Amino acid sequence: MTITGVASTATTTTGTSTESQIARLRKQEQELTKQLKELASSGDDADSVESKQQLLTAQIQAIELQIARLEAQQAHQAQASQAQAPDASATGSGAAPRSIDGTGAVVDVEL
User: Whole-structure pTM over 0.70, yes or no?
Assistant: First the structure.
């Protein structure tokens, strides 16, 4: 049985998108979970099985933590982009502001 390593993923603004990083991490998590299940029928001695089980469990937990961090970052970015988008409720109905006479002309008046 071979235990694969978990590569560290540095999040940058360029390069791989957050969604593809999450998908890649989920695939790694599935592979490690599969290895963990296969470990029970590996025929290795109990000490070896236990140490491999602990290693696989730690790797799975690290991946879950990375996924949670990326999902939180994704939610924060979505919130930030919503905050920067123009708010349709600022003008009431979302329609363009109109003048009182209905012509659409806007006049600046200083008081």
Answer: no
